[in-house]
Each structure stands twice: as structure tokens, then as C-alpha cells.
């Protein structure tokens, strides 16, 4: 029986693409690049802020990443002030979380977004202490797809990998969950498509949040 669910944040719990596009475009404009499309940002995101900036710079033509250090520092400043720009939970997510809590299941967030921004988003959307564990990117812990973050959450819960579901919207998430030994559930309402989730060897793929419940038994 599953006892917990670990959620990715961006593209899984929160529809946050416009916050990253807004901050990314403001940053890139200072270096003479962009703006970029929403679809572009759906592929810039997912592997941490540093990789988002690198991908945007390369897309803009800075293939040698000459401006990376300055652009990365600037992006972090801009994003810190705008991390909630047009961010909202996906339809059906609040109901899913409510149902999981009714069943006595623990819920956690594991994100490659900086930890302070992860907390800001979660607390703004769902309230303080709504999730049992919230883990964003911190120094000393490798980002996904390294499973270190999953193992930290499992230790907090006192659970083994086969007792949790890992839910996300990218191949990076599927690789993270599988590397930890968890059952992985890919979602179709996020930033990537079914083909990517299948290539990431998702154990299950769902189209609506409440569809997760069938895998909680």
C-alpha cells in the first residue's frame, strides 16, 4: 500500500510557466536576447535555474555562454521578486491533495527551483505547513534527476521507496523517481508531452489529477 506521494512542483502542482517566462525575458533583454515563446520556456525549465538561463542564452545566440554568470545572477534577482507572477495550481490539484490527506497519506514536494522560491510558491498556493515536506534546490544536494532529494524525503517520512508514488511532468522526474526505486507517474497537463514521459519510462501516465488515486492502493 502506498503511504506517500512526492510531487514535482512546476508543471505538476503549479502552472508557473509565465513566472519563468516573465523573469527570463526580463533577464535576457538586458543582454540583448529574446523574448522567447511559452513553448521555448517549457523546454528551458525542469533542470534548475542555471540550466534555464543557459538554454535561453544559447537559444538567443550566446552559444559560448559568455554572459552566463552575469545573466544567472540577474535572473535569480528578478525571479526572487516575481516567482508568483501569474502562478496558480492546476485544476484538480487542490481536490487531489485534499483526498490524499483524507486517506492519511503524506505529501511532499521535490523541486529543482531554489528552496526559498519553492517555499514561497507552495505557501502562497496552499498555505504554510500544508505539505509534510517541501524540498527545493539547496547547496550540497544534487538536483534531479539525482535521487538524493527523494532519499532525503524518504528518511524524513521513515518510508521505503516502494511505499511512495513519485509524480512529475518531465523525463527528468521519471528518471528521478526510478533512480530512487519509486513508482513513477507522469502527468499530461504539464510542460512536456506523452512521448517524453514514455521515453522516461514512466510506470503510469495520467491525464487528470484525480487519476492518481487509482495507484494509491
From TrEMBL:
Against Gene3D superfamilies, the record matches this protein to:
HAD superfamily/HAD-like, Putative phosphatase, domain 2
Family matches, as SUPFAM superfamilies: HAD-like
> Which top-rank group of organisms is this from?
Bacteria
Q: Which GO terms describe its cellular component?
A: cytosol
- Identify the InterPro entries for this entry: HAD-like_hydrolase_sf (IPR050155), HAD-like_sf (IPR036412), HAD-SF_hydro_IA (IPR006439), HAD_2 (IPR041492), HAD_sf (IPR023214), PGP-like_dom2 (IPR023198)
Keyword list, A-Z? Hydrolase
The keyword S-adenosyl-L-methionine appears for this protein: no
Q: Which GO terms describe its molecular function?
A: phosphoglycolate phosphatase activity
A biological process from GO: DNA repair
> Pfam families this protein is in?
HAD_2
Q: What is this protein called?
A: HAD family hydrolase
